[in-house]
C-alpha cells in the first residue's frame, strides 16, 4: 500500500476587490493623519475609505499597523521619486530639486514624526524603507556635487531637515494652508544650495545619524 504524496497548497492571492479596499484604507488614513493627527478615530478613516469597520480591522488589526503601513507607503513613493530623478539622467541639480519637491507633496513632515511616537521605529519594514531613501538621496547629492552644481558642505540630514521644516504650516494653521507657499520656500532653500557657495555655513554638515541621535 502506497501513501499519496500530499500536494502543496498554494497561498491564495488576495482578490482584486480586497486589494482595492486595502489601498483605499491606506489612502484615506494618509489624508486624515495629515489633517487631524495621529489619533484620528479609525471608524472615521473607514468611513472616508468607503469600507466597514470590519474591513479595516481585517486588514489592520490595530492603529500601529495602519500608521506603519501609511508611513511605509509614503516612503515607498519617496523612493520611486528618487529613482525617477536618478533615471532621468539630466541636470544633476534639477534631479535633486525634483526629489525635494516630491517629498513635500508626500507630506513627510506630518507623517514621519509618527514613527517615533506610536510604534517601533526599528521595525524591519521601516528600517529597510529608510535605508533605501537615505542611500538614494545621498546618491542624488553626490552626483550634484560631482557636477559642481551643489555646494559640498551639506549632507543628507541638512536637506531632510529643511524639507520637513519648510513644508510645515504656521502654528495654528491647518495643514492644507501650507500648499500656497511650500514649493516657493523650498525653491528659495534650494537656490541657496547651489555652488559656488556665497557664504560659509555655521556648524558642521548634518547627517541622518546626527538626526537620529538628536
UniProtKB/TrEMBL annotation:
<feature type="domain" description="HTH tetR-type">
    <location>
        <begin position="19"/>
        <end position="78"/>
    </location>
</feature>
<dbReference type="Pfam" id="PF21597">
    <property type="entry name" value="TetR_C_43"/>
</dbReference>
<protein>
    <submittedName>
        <fullName>TetR family transcriptional regulator</fullName>
    </submittedName>
</protein>
<feature type="DNA-binding region" description="H-T-H motif">
    <location>
        <begin position="41"/>
        <end position="60"/>
    </location>
</feature>
<dbReference type="InterPro" id="IPR049445">
    <property type="entry name" value="TetR_SbtR-like_C"/>
</dbReference>
<keyword id="KW-0238">DNA-binding</keyword>
<dbReference type="GO" id="GO:0003700">
    <property type="term" value="F:DNA-binding transcription factor activity"/>
</dbReference>
<dbReference type="InterPro" id="IPR036271">
    <property type="entry name" value="Tet_transcr_reg_TetR-rel_C_sf"/>
</dbReference>
<dbReference type="GO" id="GO:0000976">
    <property type="term" value="F:transcription cis-regulatory region binding"/>
</dbReference>
<dbReference type="InterPro" id="IPR001647">
    <property type="entry name" value="HTH_TetR"/>
</dbReference>
<keyword id="KW-0804">Transcription</keyword>
<dbReference type="Pfam" id="PF00440">
    <property type="entry name" value="TetR_N"/>
</dbReference>
<keyword id="KW-0805">Transcription regulation</keyword>
<dbReference type="InterPro" id="IPR050109">
    <property type="entry name" value="HTH-type_TetR-like_transc_reg"/>
</dbReference>
<dbReference type="InterPro" id="IPR009057">
    <property type="entry name" value="Homeodomain-like_sf"/>
</dbReference>
Amino acid at each position: 500500500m502506497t501513501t499519496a504524496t500530499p500536494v502543496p497548497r498554494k497561498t491564495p492571492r488576495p482578490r482584486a476587490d480586497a486589494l482595492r479596499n486595502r489601498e483605499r484604507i491606506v489612502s484615506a488614513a494618509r489624508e486624515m493623519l495629515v489633517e487631524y493627527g495621529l489619533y484620528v478615530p479609525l471608524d472615521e478613516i473607514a468611513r472616508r475609505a468607503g469600507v466597514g469597520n470590519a474591513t479595516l480591522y481585517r486588514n489592520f488589526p490595530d492603529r500601529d499597523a495602519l500608521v506603519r503601513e501609511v508611513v511605509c507607503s509614503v516612503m515607498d513613493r519617496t523612493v520611486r521619486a528618487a529613482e525617477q530623478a536618478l533615471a532621468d539622467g539630466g541636470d544633476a541639480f534639477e534631479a535633486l530639486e525634483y526629489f525635494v519637491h516630491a517629498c513635500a507633496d508626500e507630506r513627510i513632515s506630518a507623517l514621519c514624526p509618527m514613527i517615533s511616537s506610536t510604534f517601533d521605529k526599528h521595525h524591519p519594514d521601516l528600517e529597510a524603507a529608510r535605508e533605501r531613501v537615505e542611500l538614494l538621496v545621498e546618491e542624488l547629492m553626490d552626483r550634484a556635487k560631482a557636477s559642481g552644481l551643489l555646494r559640498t558642505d551639506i549632507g543628507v540630514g541638512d536637506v531632510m531637515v529643511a524639507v520637513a521644516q519648510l513644508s510645515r504650516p504656521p502654528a495654528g494653521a491647518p495643514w492644507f494652508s501650507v500648499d500656497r507657499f511650500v514649493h516657493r520656500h523650498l525653491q528659495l532653500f534650494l537656490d541657496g544650495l547651489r555652488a559656488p557657495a556665497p557664504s560659509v555655513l555655521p556648524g558642521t554638515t548634518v547627517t541622518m545619524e546626527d538626526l537620529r541621535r538628536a
